[in-house]
Design goal:
Blueprint: H1 12-38, H2 48-84, H3 94-123
Helix pairs in contact: 1-2
Pfam family, one: FH2
Protein name: FH2 domain-containing protein
InterPro entries: FH2_Formin, FH2_Formin_sf, Formin_Homology
């Protein structure tokens, strides 16, 4: 039997909000870099920070885009899973859904152990 207790701690809305925040922060960095490029800099001004941030954007943007894609996929699959178990994804929170699954699993495990104990005591 699987341990589903960790599923109760998963908060897809929090995950989605975090990924959206990362995307927003990247957009803000990109905007700041664009503003920085418009300003004239003298030869005496060396702005290594802007160059570093451009490199960071080049590395981080594909990762955040992958995260956005994965969260969209998770959201769609979660809705399908909730529908599969006969719940309405528009009315039940994912945390509540996983709590139901965990509760059922725990009850099933308790009942299974009781049945095994009963079977062993009858078999003697």
């Amino acid at each position: 039997m699987h341990d589903y207790s960790s599923l109760q701690k998963v908060s897809p809305p929090t995950l989605f909000a975090s990924v959206n925040a990362l995307n927003g922060h990247l957009a803000q960095i990109r905007e700041e870099l664009n503003n920085n490029q418009r300003r004239k800099t003298t030869e005496l001004q060396i702005d290594r920070f802007a160059e570093s941030m451009e490199e960071f954007i080049l590395e981080a943007e594909p990762i955040v885009n992958d995260l956005k894609s994965m969260t969209k996929d998770i959201e769609e699959k979660l809705k399908l899973l909730i529908l599969y178990y006969g719940e309405d994804p528009n009315t039940i929170k994912s945390e509540e859904f996983f709590d139901i699954i965990s509760s059922f699993s725990n009850s099933f495990e308790v009942r299974k152990k009781a049945d095994i104990y009963l079977y062993k005591s009858i078999s003697k």
